[in-house]
Every structure is written in C-alpha cells, then in structure tokens.
Amino acid sequence: MASRSALKMTSIPSMTFHNSSLEKEEEMNYDFYEQIKSLVESDDSSDDFTEDDEDVEESFLDISAEEPVLGKFPIDTKGTITVVLPSLEYICVICKQHMGKASELVAHFNIKHRDIPLVFKCAKCDKTNSNHRSIACHAPKCGGIKLTEESLPMVCECCQARFATLSGLSQHKRHAHPVTRNEERIKDGIKGTSQRGVHRSCWSLKEVEHKKTGAPMSDSLHFSSRPLETLSPPPNVTTGTSSILAQAAERLTNENSGTLEKPAMEAIKAWLNGEGQHDALVETATALMLCPMRLVKNKGKRSKPENDIIKPRILPTRSWMKKRAEKRGSFMKHQKLFFKNRSLLASLVLDGTERHECRIPNADVYRFYCEKWEKVLPFNGLGQFKSSGVANNEYFEPLISVEEVQTAIRAIKPTSAAGPDGLTRAAICAADPEGRTLTALFNAWMITGIIPKELKKNRTILIPKVMDDEKLKELGNWRPITIGSMILRLFSRIMTARLARACPLNPRQRGFIAASGCSENLKVLQDLMRHAKKLHRPLAVMFIDIAKAFDSVSHAHILWVLRHKKVDEHVVGIIQNAYDRCTTSFKSNGESTREISIRVGVKQGDPMSPLLFNLAMDPLICTLESHGVGYSIDTDHVTALAFADDLVLVSESWVGMAANLAILESFCGLSGLEVQARKCQGFMISPTKDSYTVNNCDPWTIKNKDVHMIQPDESTKYLGLKIGPWTGTIQPDLHCQLKTWISKIDEAPLKPTQKVELLNAYALPRLLYPADHSDCKQSTLRGLDQEIRKAVKGWLHLPASTCDGLLYARARDGGLAILKLEKTIPSVQVRRLQRIANSSDAITRNIVSSQGMEEEYRNLWVRAGGDSDAIPTFVLRDSVSKEPVYPRPCDWREHEFQRWCEKPVQGRGIVNFAHDRISNAWLRPWCGFKQCFFIAALQLRANIYPTRESLNRGRDGALRSCRKCSARLESLSHILGQCPAVQKARIARHNKISNILADEAARLGWSVYKEPRFISETGEMRKPDLVFAKDEEAVVIDVTVRFELSKNTLSDAASHKVSYYTPLGDQVKVLTKASKVTFFGFPVGARGKWPLENNEVLTSLGLTKPRTTSLAKMISRRTLLFSLDILRMFCGNYAVYEQS
C-alpha cells in the first residue's frame, strides 16, 4: 500500500478543474473531492481510505511508489518533473510556491528553474507532452487507456468485431444486426403475455380459428360478444332545409338585381312556382352569366391563319454545331421554365423529370377506366357498420354570400389548372371582381338543386406514382386527377366547407382536416411504440393498403352514409346531382379519348372528394373504435389511425389484431372496397424478461393470404417517413440527399442567382418535413447548413470569409434570406409539438402529454434560441377558445442581421439597410441585374469587394496602399469617395442622378436651373446642383453621394447641404421670381441606400406616392450600378476612361 505522502502528491483523475488552458469549466465531483481532502489532511493511512471505499482502485489514484517524490510533482531519474493534468493546484516542488494556473507554473520554471525539464501528463491515459496546452485540450476528451482489439473478450459472430463488455456487444448487435439480436431474444424465452385488455376483446379464439380456415363468417358469428344494433336501410330524411331555402329565395327574387343576375332570378322564380322548365332555365342562366368570363378568357388570343405554314427547322450537320445547338436549347428551356413555371423547373432539375407523359395507348386507357368507373356493383347498405353523430343541417340554411365566394376564390392558387371550358382564376376575377354574379349563380344552383350539364364535363390527366420507366408501363402506377370547371370547383369548395361543419368525423380520421394530421398520427404511433417497449407490453401494428380507394368507392355508399347521418335530403340531392351524368376524357399523345361516365369513385381534384371519401370511411373507423381491440394508455383507447385511405390498425395482442382485420374484411365486403393483402405490412412487438422481440408469432392473414411481417432490419413508409419495429422512425440520410440536389443544381444550365433561388425555394423546403419528424440532431443540421453555405458562396463567387448575415438576413434587410436549418427545424418542431398538445382530439392530447412531451418542448424552445425564462404555456387550448396562436421561439433572422451589423469591417454601415425595401429591391434574383453586377453588388454591400484592403485583410506586412494614389489604405470608401484617379467617374455619377431629378421635375411643369452661380456673403461662389421654380415657389436641391460609414452619414450630409445653401435664399428669389424658397439636401448612399428624407423632396415636387416609390427604387439601383462602374474603372484601365 502506498504511503500518505504519495497520496498527497497525486491528482485525482475523476475531477477536472478550470484553468487557463481549458476552454470551459466542467462539473466537479465535490463529495469525492472533500473525502479525498479530509483523508490527505488527516493522520490516517491510505489503508483506511481503501477499506472505506472498495470501488476505488490503486490504478485509479495513479500512485507510483517506485518514483522518488519531492513535493507536489514526481521527478524521474533524469531530473524531469512530471505534472499530471487536470490538477487541483499547482505547487513548485523546488521552492514550494503556489500557482493558480499551469501557464503560471510554466512561466515560473522558465524564469526560476530554467535548467529543469517540465513535462505534462494526462491523468487518464498517461500521454505526455512538454506543451501544457496540448494535454489540457486532450484531457477533457480522453477516454482512458484503450485496450487492443485482440485483448477484447466479446466477439460478434456476425462480423467478428470485438467488444470489452457484453452490453457493448448487445448494443452492437441491436444496431448492426437487428435480425440476429431479435432471434437471440426469442431463443432466450418470452415473458408471460399480459392479460390487460382481454375483457374488452369482442373476438374469441374460436372465432379467430374459424377465420383462419377461410370459411365465411355468418352474421350470427359476427360481433357475437357485443352485438351491434341491427340497422335497416336509413330512410330519406328531410328536416326543412328546402322550405327555409324557399323562403330565402322569395326574399332574394323580390330584391333589385343587376342585369347579369336576372337569368338566375328567373330560374329561381320558376322553381318556386313549380314550373317544370327550371332545369332548362338554370342551364340558360349559367351560359349567359358565364359568357363575359369566356370573353375575357379569349381576349388577346390570335388564331393562326389557315395558310400559315410552319417551316421545318434546319438542324446543324457538324458535331460541334449540334452540341452547341443542344446546349443553347437546354439553356433557353431552363430560362423559360424559370420565369414561367419554377415548380416544373425544380422537378426537372431535382428529380430528373419534367413531366412524365403516359405512353400507354389511349385505347388501353379508355378500356381500363371504362371497366373501373362505368361498372356499378350492387350496394345493399353497410349493415351493422354505422357512423356516430347526426348532421347539423342549420349550416345549409343560409344562402351563399359574397364573402363565401370571395374566400373560395382566394383559396384557389393563381396557377390552378383550368377545366375543359378553359376558364381560369384570372378570367373569373377580371369578369366578376366582386363575386356578385357567381353568388347569384351559386344560389340558383343551391336553391334548385340543379348543376348544369355543361359543367359536369371533366378532363383527366395521369400523374405517375413512381419514377421507374418499367413500372410506368402499367396503368396501376398512374394516379388519375380529374379536373372540372373552375366554376364548379368554386361551388364545390363552398359546399364542402358547410358539409364539414355539419358532419363532424371520427377524431381518429386526421386526413384533409384543419389540423396537422400527419404530425398527430406519426406522433401517436411513435408514442404507442415507445410506451409498449418501456412498460414491456405487447403491441401489434398493421399498415393497411386499400386498392384504388378514391376510384372504387361507390356513389350509393356515399349517399347511404349521408342519409344515415341525417343530412337534409335537399343537400344530398345536390351532391347526387353533381355526379349524375358526370363524364370525363383522357388526353395523351395529342389525342383525346371518348367520354367516360363517372359512376363509381370520387373525382380526385375536386374540393369535395376528400370529405366524401372520409365520410364513406367513417363507419369503419367508428366500428373499429367501438368494437375493435386496440391499445390502451391509461383510460385512452386507440384502434385505428387514419389519414384518408392510409389506415393503421393497432392492438395489444395478436388475437386482437386478427379481430380488427376481420372487421375490416367485413366492411370491405359490404362496401365494395378491396384490401391488397400483398401490400399490407405489419409487426408484433412482444415483451421478454428484460427487453422485447419482434414477430415472435404467426403472420396475420387477409383473404387467406399471409401478410408480410416487417423484420427488425426492414421498414415501411408511412406518411412520408420510414417506420420500423426495431427503432421506430428511421433517420433519413438528409446529408446525402442534399449533396445530390446541390450537384444537380450545379450542373443545370442556370445563372448563379437562379441556382440559389432553386436551392432555397424548392430544394431546402423538401428537407423540412423529414428533418422535423425524424428529430435530427443539432450536429446533423449544422453539417447541412455548412454544405448550403459552401454551395451558395461558390455559385455567387463570394469568399469563404463572407459573414453569415449576408446569407441569412431577410431581403428587406439586405440579405439573401437563405434557410438556416439549425434554427428553422427546432422552431418548427416547437410549434408542431404545441399544435399536437392543443389538438382538437382529446385522446391525442392525453397520449402525447403522458409521454413527457412537455419536457421535450422546453428543450426544443431553448435549442431554437428562445429565452429559457420566458417559455410559453404548453397547453393553450380550452373548451371555448378559438384556435390558439403558437409563438416562435426567436427571430433568428433578426439575430443574424444584428450579428452582421456588429462585424467591424463587413458590418460597417449595414445598419442603414435595416427594414429598407427600397434600397434592397435589387436583391431579387430576377431584378434585371446582370449576374456579374449582382455578384459585385453583393461584394460591395458586405465590404468584401476585391480591393487591396479586402484581399490582404488580416495579413501582416501585406500591401494595402492605394494603387492609384498615395493613400494609406485602398478601401471601398476611399475609391468611391476620395481617390483622385476616378474623380471624373464620381462626377459623372453625381451628374446622372441630378439629370434624373431634373427630367422628373420638368415633366411635372417645373422650370429647371442647373448649377446656377451665386455669391455668398464671404465672397465665395456657390453652385447648387438644381433649382426648380413653379408659380411662386422655388426648390433648391443639392445632390451628394456618400459611402455609408455609419447610421448618421447621410442625414449629416443633408443637414450640411441645407445649412450651406440657406444664406442664398434672396438670390434664389431674384433668379426665380418666387416668394418662397425651400432648401433640400439630396444624399444617396454609394451602396444604394435611399434615405426616407428624400421622399419629402419628391413629394414637394408633386410626385404621387407610387411614383415616388418607383423613382426611389430606380435612383437607388442606378447609384449602386454607377458605383460598380467606378470600381471596375479603378481596377481596370483608367486611361481608357479618360480618353472616352
């Protein structure tokens, strides 16, 4: 056992202490330190210490009895003193002097004991170095003495990797070989199955075994545990909506209406009087009222003359000419798409495809969809499946208002495709800007229940589901999108909003509703898996695939559900009439097919289709929740997670999942929907003694076909993310995806600013959803941001030292507004979690709150830059409040701008451009600047233009003096404001700005005097740039261009000009014969800054506000371009400019 003196001189490896060489102070084990200190200071031997704490080993204390000891640090046989880092205190072993830092100890030895070598050693791995900084930086990251690979006892039989502990080997297999690890868990034995939830099961083992045989289950066997109420086909229900609409129609017809609204009023009167011609009158009224819109649509279009012959294009013959022509053609194609359809350009560049044209013959397409849409199968009702709740028909009683029509128009995108009639959103807004004509027309449709036949004609396009050319040869891999008339889609949007409020859905359906449905379903599924693994409970999950769900749902099925929910028969008739005699046609390869009647399915592309499909699926979801066997957390019970046709079933047992699948099969048999067993996937998590296994059971069956069981090393895609039974949500490789997109954008024939726009507006938003829902690490986001900055700086030819503020600040503040994922993703995650916690679904709120999500929310708030002392309340919703507002943790773009302003060189004068849309208007990539001027303007704005001062910044002894004159520093402010070599260019810049003001004043009727000469009281000659005279008023303006060095540079210049020329007021009155003289300074920044005080000058000349804004932008842009010309002249051949 070592002596007490040896113990005193030894440092404690478990403690780290703050000194000057360490970057941060780490936490000390104070209790352990006090114990050691008391033992060292006492007379007890180290034997007592070792006996009290058997876990402490001698090697841990780093005691060497063989070395002679002198004071604090050991001295070897060569006379070298070894200092162990990190250490509590530093004492010179020779003169007993105390030092607070290792650096002070080194300085002490250099002065007092220069001949004695000093070596520093790591307390964990015995690494030595004469430089104390090297060991101080190494110690916090040191993992101790590493064992050789051959000495590690645990060996992986799969890859022969070695590990020191069994736990390390187990974790390795869990991540690298999940299938092997799962098999080992199954062999180790399975924990007893939990009986929780058995009392809620409505399917017995006998029923499940009967189902396995493939024999059909009789009605008496179905729902035998808890019989459902037998429902007869629901009768037609009328609650008086028709009579209320009739009363409103009478009031409407008695009011004075415009000329365009009269046909609609006549149709309504015919319906009120019971005349049989109201159908024809509705058709006529629709044609007459839509005629102005069709005229607007055809305005400006010229038809080609019959004798117009298209000359064949002569292709080049030589190879180099062909390559050049192809290159030019590709460039022109990309440029045209950039200015007309950027989303299509993004698809072309990022996905490698512009638009997949269906190459399948039209005859095959027509035959396929005729068989699908025109073949009506018999529907006899849904039997014992029923929806919960009754419709509130009061939402259908009011007439359609102008506000509803305007809201519907605003909801449609300007680029939304037109229907077969060719009417676009722009044509509708131009012909009916207030929406009164459409309001009268829609009320006529709603009151009479008649939709014009002409508007029931549609056109259908095929959108590829996959990008594999081989798979696209099958029609099953194409999604039909049916596009109807824009007018009918507006009416459908209004009726959909009313129907959604009148018929609430089961809360387990989160598709196409006013909520973050994808986020809620993903979060609930993740929490269910986490809860089951944590509490060692079994969990069964099944991902259901319904074949062509939107195309195969029966119209009779939809109407049955509407009537069962007691929707007013008049409203049901309107929906039924919208699909009655509804037709569509396909167009591909320049030819259209014959019309196909849509007798089955809903129109994908119509606003009402998602709601109708959700209503059709509602009886299934309600029955699963009420009679299925789900998974329970506390008092909350979940059986299904639905997002439109994406259905996930969950249960707490294998038998329970089999019962849920039986309910699903029964519903599909009654409704005509078909489940694709080969595309359905599932997994079963079973608890073991201390862990869990995957799929330690037989596979489930659907229609006597085994369902694929997802293995531990496999995953399935659900709502855009990969979900696996072993790890839950699988992290996507965002870094590889981003590098691929950057490489494709870099190779595209686009201009530099267009590449930046494509990356920022179309590529980066694609990363937000997977990065948000997969909980990316902060280091991953930093790496992505680094790749983005590298690409942007490369495209714009910016030096690597360019500050981040230029990239991340808003365009109105002078930045490029690039997305910063490190700050954006945590901010998005904070608001997503808060939305989920305030969901309209109580079960979702309870499940996520029970899984500790509030703590996750608090951590993300701080990570996103929010104040830890001002974290808002997690749950904001109450039973009566409106939709809550979810705050952002911080304005990270404003923080980036403030950091830019604080830069001593690149941020000089940047504060002038804050919140200035006029001075920063040129920052749009399509502002009209040539690319070389745009890039140079960015360099000028950030003070990184390649002058001698900029190129040699930070280099000692480098040449920084002006190359044209004797100035000490060749800076931008010197060139643009002082250097005599380009004085003529600066005068030309000044005169061009003066001429712009003179021309504008002359256009408004002012008399213009350029540079009149006046004599001051001191005898000096003073020449203001411009004197304007009109009537009895005169305006004196002197233009100056200054480099924006500080916030007050331009305001001080304006004040100086006013005070300089004010004494000349009497002479100006004599010159202009005016009674009132106003003096203005007119400063403009050399980097394009437009002071708001200049607006007063333009207003005094009589310019309107829009003209003032446009002129201000023009002067700002031209001043910036004039400054760039001066810089080019300075760096080029100045003699050429003098000759010109």
Automatic annotation (TrEMBL):
Reverse transcriptase domain segment(s): 444-723
Region (Disordered): 214-238
Chain segments annotated as coiled-coil in the UniProt record: none
SUPFAM superfamilies recorded: DNA/RNA polymerases
Record key words, sorted: Metal-binding, Zinc, Zinc-finger
SMART domains: ZnF_C2H2
Record has Metal-binding as a keyword: yes
A GO molecular-function descriptor: zinc ion binding
Name of the protein described by the UniProt record: Reverse transcriptase domain-containing protein
Keyword Iron-sulfur: no
Superkingdom assignment: Eukaryota
Lineage of producing organism: Eukaryota, Metazoa, Chordata, Craniata, Vertebrata
Residue ranges annotated for the C2H2-type domain, each copy included: 154-182
